[in-house]
Amino acid sequence: MHGGEFSGRSPANPSVRGFSFTNSMRRFCADAIVRLPPLAHIDLTHVAISFAQARKRTSHGMYASLTPMRFAGGALTCRRRTRTYGIQRLYDAQGREILYILTFYLPRFMDLGFREKLVTIFHELWHISPLFDGDLRRHPGRCYAHTHSQKEYDAEMEALARQYLSAAPPVAAYEFLQGSFSDLLARHGRVYGTKIRRPRLLRMV
Questions:
Q1: Which of 87, 8, 113, 1 is nearest to 47 (CA)?
Q2: Fewest CB within a 10 Å sphere: which of 60, 135, 164, 198?
Q3: What's the CA gap between 109 and 104, in Å, rounded?
Q4: What domain count does the chain have?
Q5: Would you call 160 helix, strand, or coil by DSSP?
Q6: SS (H, E, C) 1-54
């Protein structure tokens, strides 16, 4: 894991050092997990939060992604044809193993509307297995990640967003999500955070 940033104009107040997007997102996710029982199985100490730079500043494309660090059922390896593979393992500074990487694509994610941002965040958190074993939440059928109906899945995430806001969370937890990326730069001068390279798939001997 390493740091990265988007630079903007220097802030008017030289004592302002910038805005940590990944720290702020971690605080938001921690607050949401406490307020939403369906997410109570998530232990953020084993979830890395990262950002990546969107190649083009367009309204379409990927906004966020969740990378599981285990295979089906929490397995460390999987068999594909005649070969066995594992995933490069990742640990934080305290030596805790990372089971999921939650990545946001900037500035594209921050240019969504407020409710769209909430739905996107809950969309990715919902992918985390109820067993919290490093695997994805798996639904019956071929479309195991989003169920058979993307529309129904999106409706569930909308419901989570409404439930979160109705739980009277502190404004400080989500205030940064109410503006655009340009708003963050104008207010803080720069936006920075943790960047994590996508883990490699390793061929096992």
A1: 1
A2: 60
A3: 6
A4: 1
A5: helix
A6: CEEEEEECCCCCCCCCCCEEHHHHHHHHHHHHHHHCHHHCCCCHHHEEEEEEEC
